[in-house]
Structure formats: structure tokens, C-alpha cells
Amino acid sequence: PISWYIKNWLQNKSLMMVHGPSGSGKTFLVLDWCLRMAAVDMDNRDWCGNRTKDLPVVYLAGEGHYGLRARVAAWMQNFGVDKIKFWMSKTGTDLNSSEGLVKVIDNVRALPETPKVIVVDTLHRFLNGDENSAQDAKTMLDACALIMEEFDCTVVLVHHTGVSDEAQHRARGSSAWRGALDIEVSVKPSKNGGPIEVIQRKMKDAEMQGSLFFDLKKVDITGWRDEDNDQVSSVVLESSNKPIKMDKKVSKIEEKRRRFERAWHHSHRSRDDQNRPYVARSALMEFQINELGFTDGTARKELQPSTGTMIGMLLDADYIEKYERGWSAKSASLIIDFGGSD
After folding, report:
1. What is the distance between the alpha carbons of residues 26 and 24, in angstroms, rounded to a whole number?
2. What is the rounded distance in angstroms from the CA atom of residue 214 to the CA atom of residue 223?
3. Are 318 and 265 in contact (CB under 8 A)?
4. Among the residues of the chain, which ranges form H helices?
């Protein structure tokens, strides 16, 4: 029988790839897996109800090291974890070169514990060559096989998808990548304020699992301040429900409602003098730009009380009303758990 590290999702001594477009949330997903496995004395480490083992992890990070440290700190704070068996590289290297491979193996050997999962994020930053070349892909896959053999571990490759809509279901580059994988997972980014979707694309030795859905929850990291003394924040994955398909008109209003709701959760759940959920105009702008990737112009347009905009549609539906420098929820159906505890 298969020995699972995360039941139904990540098995031992396997080659796995997680791919998605830039900003899709794929690194948040992989970090969530890794930190659950690496957490010391975590009360419930199961991932979405799937049994998860306690084991050490190495994260080979090719870029964004400060941001990754913030993400790790936010995750640990959110789940009340004080210690992790988790090591992150300070730089990337050409893993498919002799020098780079030896460098990685020597550094991992020197750790106090032998990792059972080694993540390569992103594949592009560790590949010497062309990801479209089957020959270059083979040298990288051979390097991964050597690492798996050396440490009796699983290797997880984090990679990008192509640019076109037709390419979002597969990894960018040579078809040799997919052929060598034991497990393949893709991450579809949030669309119109909806949740992130995590999809199994290949499961070589077991039954494929259905899609899972996640929102991004903002976490203010205690004790972290930037050079201007502003609060440093990051986000963690939070389980969500599968989006409900509705007729076109209703689905548009629901999309706007959900966006307003998410903005409220991201802006410290403020309330007006009637204890109704309240979102300031500036908070809505910040949420749409930083969390949804809107341009400044698009974000401003959505805050106009015009036909088809977020604010216009919610005003017409009598969900919200103007209050001070923002809007308050009139309808209890606008915010999930309206009136409940924070």
C-alpha cells in the first residue's frame, strides 16, 4: 500500500509538481502542506481532513526569501505553532549542474534531521537550460531522482503554467515534465472575488481526488514592523466552499457581494455606530489592488455608484448604504455570520 505523507495528496518517495500562473496562490498551498508536516506539537495537523504525518521539510527557495519568511511567520501565528522542523535555502542554484547538485546535497546532509520532503520553488530558478527542451528537462529530472534516492524523500517542484487560457491546465514547457511525475496538482487563481481552486491533474498510483477551494486570510504578524513602523502582514489559506453556479444576473450580484464581504474580513471587520459591518473606501481600494490585482483605475471605477459596478449593484440591491467615508451593510445576507463573533 502507498505510504502517504498527506493522505490522498502527497506520498512518500515520489516526484510531484504544483503549477499555476503567477499570483495564483501555489506557494501558499505548498507552504501550508510543508508547515503542517514540519510543525512540532501541532494539535491537529490534518489537511482538509486528510491525515498528515509529522516530518522534517527542506524548502529550496530561488527568490522572495523575505516574503517567504513572512508567510511562514504568519502561518505559525495563525495556527499557534512555536517550532517547526523546516529549513529554507538562502539562495537558488542550478540543480541540474554537478556543482549545484553537490552543493544542495552537502547542505542538506549537514542538517540535524534528514528531510522527507524537499521543495524546489520555482523550477525555473533552479534549472540550467530551457524548460521547453526535453533534454534539459531530463537533466533536471535526473537530479531530482538522485535527491530522492539520496534522502529517501519526496521532491515537490513548483512551476508556472503558460500564459494563454488554454495552457492553464498544464505546466509550462516540455511534455517530459508531466510524463515523469507521480502526482500533478494545479492551482487556479481567484476569479471575480471567488476562492482559489486546487485540482489534481495526475495521480499515478491512487484514485484522483475532487477539487478543493480556499480563500486567502490576512494575518497581521505580531512584532513585525517595516522601516516606517507600519504593520507587516501576510496571508494563509483558509478552506472555502465550492462556488455555486447561478444565473448570470444573480451571479454578478453574488460576486460583488462576496467581494465586499472579503474586503470587510481583510479590513479588521470594522462596524458602524449601529454595529453593522462597515468598509471604508480606502480599505476597498487597497483590497481590490493588493488582493485581487486590480489596476488603480479599475478599482476606482468599481467604487462609483454606477450601473454594473460593485458599489452600484450593491446599492441597487439595497445591500449597502453610504456611511461616512465608506459603506455599511444594510442586509444581513451581505456578510456571512453577520452579527457573530469576530
Report:
1. 6
2. 27
3. no
4. 26-38, 65-79, 98-109, 123-126, 134-151, 176-180, 248-266, 281-290, 296-302, 310-316
For residue 80, pLDDT beyond 60: yes
The two counts, helices (H) then strands (E), for the chain are 10, 14
Cβ-contact 83, 41 below 8 angstroms: yes
**Residues present in the chain in total:** 342
C-alpha cell at 117: 520532503
Question: Hey, how many other C-beta atoms are within 10 angstroms of the C-beta on 167?
Answer: 13
How many whole angstroms separate alpha carbon 193 and alpha carbon 265?
13
Distance, in Å, from the CA atom of 266 to the CA atom of 274, rounded to the nearest integer, reads 20
What are the residue ranges of helices labelled H in 164-280? 176-180, 248-266
Q: What is the pLDDT of residues 107-149, one digit of tens each?
A: 999 999 999 999 999 999 999 999 999 999 999 999 999 999 9
Tell me the three state secondary structure of residue 103: helix
Residue holding cell 512584532? 223
Rounded to the nearest 10°, the torsion over CA 64, 10, 36, 198 is 70
Q: Give ∠ CA 311-315-319 in degrees, rounded to 5.
A: 105
DSSP characters for 270-321?
Answer: -B-TTS-BEEEHHHHHHHHHHTT---HHHHHHHTSSSTTSHHHHHHHTTSEE
Confirm whether pTM is higher than 0.90: no
The three cell numbers locating residue 322:
453610504
Q: How far apart are CA 199 and CA 318, in angstroms?
A: 36
- Furthest C-alpha separation in the chain: 66
> Tell me: the pLDDT tens digits for 148-204?
999 999 999 999 986 555 556 678 788 889 899 999 999 998 877 789 999 999 999
Count other Cβ atoms within 10 Å, centred on residue 9: 21
- The angle, 0 to 180 degrees and rounded to 10, between the axes of the packed helices 65-79 and 26-38 is 50
Radius of gyration of the chain (CA): 22
For residue 32, the SS3 value is helix
Q: What SS3 class is residue 243?
A: coil
Contact between 109 and 153 (Cβ < 8 Å): no
